[in-house]
TrEMBL record:
Domain ATP-cone: 49-139
ZnF (unnamed) ranges: 3-34
KW Nucleotide-binding (keyword) present: yes
Gene that encodes it: nrdR
Cofactor binding mode and count: Binds 1 zinc ion.
Superkingdom in the source lineage: Bacteria
Family to which the UniProt record says this protein belongs: Belongs to the NrdR family.
Protein's job: Negatively regulates transcription of bacterial ribonucleotide reductase nrd genes and operons by binding to NrdR-boxes.
Transport listed as a keyword: no
Sorted UniProt keywords: ATP-binding, DNA-binding, Metal-binding, Nucleotide-binding, Repressor, Transcription, Transcription regulation, Zinc, Zinc-finger
Listed name of the protein: Transcriptional repressor NrdR
Cofactor requirement: Zn(2+)
Pfam families: ATP-cone, Zn_ribbon_NrdR
Amino acid sequence: MKCPYCHHDDTQVIDTRVSEEGNVMRRRRRCAHCDKRFTTYERIELAMPVIVKKNGSRTEYESVKLRASLMLALRKRPVSAEAVDGAIQRIEEKLLSSGEREILSVQLGELVMRELKRLDKIAYIRFASVYKSFEDISEFAEAIQEINVENKVGKNKKAAEPE
């Protein structure tokens, strides 16, 4: 493994840990040349489905694009990097568990919107406005109203639950 700082080839593993779910290996490494430390993650590589765009063209799934979309919607919002990583992991797990070789970009967009709704309502509205191509302010109002209704239903469920 090359050092990300000095690009030297000789790095050694200092510590290895398995994630709680047991599907990721975390390794702390130290560069023998510059003595800096860094972390690497080892995951099982499974074939992600091909994304079928609205125009019918096909493209490979790219985690980098998913992260960029989420980060754009979450720009200047109080959401931790760990929460974003968790959302990406849940989306990718759903893609893999679908067992499909191809998935429509619309389905992927819905998965992203569901995760953004969990993470941050403002980011959800930002993403939805672009994803659903809002044409006027009434569409924003409808999306906000939808979130307000869901929040009220969620609060009512919590109030009705016995302690």
